[in-house]
Amino acid sequence: MTDKKELLKLLEEKQKRNKLVTYENDFSSFAKDNIKIITKDARAGFVNFTFNTCQDEINKALDKQLAETGKVRAIILKARQQGISTYCAGRVFWKTYFTPHARSVVMAHDSATSDALFTMSRNIIKNMNPAYRPNEVKSNAKEIVISAPHFPKDTYGERPVGSYRLYTAGSPEAGRGTTPTIAHLSEVAFWTHDEKILAGLFQGISEAPGTEVIIESTANGAQGEFYRLWKGAVAGENEYLPLFLPWFSTPEYWREPPENFERSSEEDLLVEQFDLNDGQLYWRRLKIAEGGELKFRQEYPATPDEAFITAGSSVFNPEKTARLVPVEPDRRMNFDFMSSSWEPSKEGNLHLWGYPDWDSNYIVAADVALGVGQDYSTAVVLDINRKVIALYRDNRIDPSKFGDLLFYLGRYFNNALLIVESNSMGVATLSRLAQMNYVNLYKQTKISSISKEEGQVPGFRTTQVTKPHIIGNLKNAVENDDIWIASKVMIQELKDYISTDSGRTEAAPGCHDDTVMATAIALEALRTHYDKLTMNKVPWSQRASTFSYEDETAWF
Q1: pLDDT tens track for 173-202
Q2: Per-residue b/e over 461-500, b at no fewer than 16 CB within 10 Å?
C-alpha cells in the first residue's frame, strides 16, 4: 500500500514537472490553467484566463519576437477595452514566476490603475492551484517578493526569489535607479513626466536574454514620448515591435442592426476599406452617438493615424489627409557629383512621379538642413497644375553640395523657378547657386501676403509673418483638393504637423516637417510668380547629360 502511494506521488510529481515545462514555454497554457480574472461580466466572478482574439494576436507576436531575438521589446497602440492591460499584467507575473531573481516593474499613469494592476497580481497568486502557488516571501502595498516551489534550492538551501514592484508615474523620479528585467509600462501617453521617467527607466533596463519590456497605451494625441517611440518603431528606428489592433478586431464590438438599417456613404467606404459588416457599423453608430465621431476615432481607431488625432492639434484636416493615397514613384534616382548627373537607383533619394514636359513650367522649392543626420534637406518639384511630380530628401548632404544638386535638378525641369528657404543653412545653398549662375532664382516679394512686388534678395525667408501665411495656403490647398501629393513621406508629414498650445505650427515631437515647408514655399512661389514663370530652355544636348537613363521613352 505504501509503495502504491509512493508510486502515485512520484507520478503526480512527474506530471507536475511536465506541466511546469509546458507552462514555462507557453504563457497561453499557464494563463488558462493558473490565472483567474474578473471579466466585463463581473457576475461570473473569477474565471479562467482564456485569451480573447486581441490577446491571442499580441501573444503570438511577442512569442515570435522572443524566439527570434531572445527578448521582448514591444510597443502596443490599443483601442479601449481590448484586454491588453490584463494580458500584460498576467504576462509579467508569468515571467516573474519562471525567472529566478527576476526584477519586475509595473508602472501606470495614475494610482487607481496602478492599484488595479497590483490587485490583479495578488488575485493571481491567491487563486492559483495550490500545487503551483508561489510562496510570498515579502508583501506590502508596493511590492511582492515570491519564491516559486519549482525553483531549485541554492547551496544555502534557499530558493531564489523574484520581485514584483509597483510604481505610479506621478513624479519625474519614478522608477529611477531600478534595474528591471521585466517591465510593463501602462498608458504611457498619459504620463505627466513621460520623457524623464522613461529616460531613467531605459538606463536601468537589462539587455540580457529573456528580458521583456512592454509599453502599451491608448493614444493621447500626436505628442509625447509614446508617440515618438511609436513613430520610431514603425520606421524601424528603434528595437520596439509596433503592435496595433483596430477596434473591429474585437468580436464584442458588434450589435444586431435594426431591420431598416441602411449604410451611409461614409459607412460604405469603411466596408470597402476594412470589410466591416452591418453589426459592426451599427455598434460604431451607437458609440459615436454617445461621445461624437472624433472621440470615437481616438478611443476606437481603425488605423494608427486615427488614434493620434486630437481636436485642434492637427493643422491639416485629418479626414482629408486620411484620403490621400500614397503612390509608388515611377523611378528613383541618385545624383552623381563626379559626373553631375542623375543615375537610376532603387534606393535613390529623388523620387519621380512625372517627367518634364518641354512646354511646361515648374517650381523647385527647397528646405535646407545641416546635413548631420537630423533634419532633411528637401526639394519638391511642383508643376503649374499643383501636382508634386518629384521629391528629393536627404539628411546627410552638405548645404553647399545641395546647391550643386539643385542646379541640375532645376535645369532638368526646364530651368524651373528655384526657390530656396534662406533661413540658416539656406544661405550657403543660395551662395553656391549664385556662383553657378543659375538663371531662374526666386526673389521674395516685399510682403508676401499682400504685395507681388519682387525684391532683390534671392530665396524665401520664413518668419513669424510669412510662415502662418504659407502654411494657411497649403492647408487650403489640401482641404480643397487643390494639390496632388503622392509621396508616402509627404502625406505622413502632413498628418504629423500640429498646432501647439502656444499657437505655433510644427512637426509633432519625433517627426519632421521638411516636405511640408518645401511644399508650402512652392505654393507661395506659384501664387506670387505665376505670371513671371520663365522657360529659359536648355539645349537638349545639355539637358540629356544631366540625367542618365536606361530607356529614353520612359521619360516622356
Answers
A1: 777 777 888 999 999 999 988 888 888 888
A2: ebeeebbebbbebbbebbeeeebbbbbebbbbbbbbbbee
